[in-house]
Amino acid sequence: MQPEKFAEAVDGEISCHISQLAKDYHLEIIAGVAQKQNQEFKNCALWFDANGELKANYQKQKMFRFADEHKVYRPGKKPVLASLFGFLESSLFICYDLRFPELFRKVAKQSQIAVIIANWPQARQMHWQVLLQARAIENQMWVLGVNRIGLDGNDVLYSGGSMLFSPKGELVFDAKQSPVYEYDLNLQEMLGEVSTYRAEFPALEDL
Fold first, then answer.
1. Burial track 30-63 (b if 16+ CB lie within 10 A, e otherwise)
2. Which of 67, 162, 190, 191 makes an SS bond possible with 175, Cβ 3.0 to 4.6 Å?
3. Which residues pair with 58 in a beta bridge?
4. What is the reported pLDDT for 172?
5. Predicted confidence band at 150 (pLDDT cuts at 50, 70, 90)?
6. Where exactly are the structural domains of the chain?
7. What is the pLDDT of residue 1?
8. CATH for 79-207, among 2.40.50.140, 3.30.413.10, 3.40.50.300, 3.60.110.10?
């Protein structure tokens, strides 16, 4: 909540470093970065493609009033969609956004996977898992939640729990408290599962 100390411009040091990592290791990387623009602060999720190019810049839409985030950051006003390696149309969200199903509904028909990066504390860990699963079930999409671990400067504990849910709400993997977690996924099969399930159970057609 002190972005004046570390928020950066769109082409700031942190963003440039992440871009270079993506290019060097041929990865797609999504990372949270505080940005400053026109004397205003934004809580952003930046998505770099395997060439190090900025594919998407999502600005968090819901400010965490419990921690006075609304007094510090300017909220975003729209969702962001991008293609994951050319297979899955993806939407980005940040932490507290997860509690607002209407944000996910706006992109449900256009998106096959939602990616949520978060600082979600252990005190509300049960909410984290239940809400991730609910967003997957109600929108018939893959939902990937990536959460931090460790103790922050305010002695708030974070226990991780990065996890992936299928369009049917099935838990595919749970990283638990692992600081580094690898899991192999077949994106073509993931796309097929979304399409098949939505055709078999066309709930989204009633939106």
1. bbbbbbbeeeebbbbbbbbbeebeebbbbbbbbb
2. 162
3. 45
4. 97
5. very high
6. 1-77, 79-207
7. 86
8. 3.60.110.10
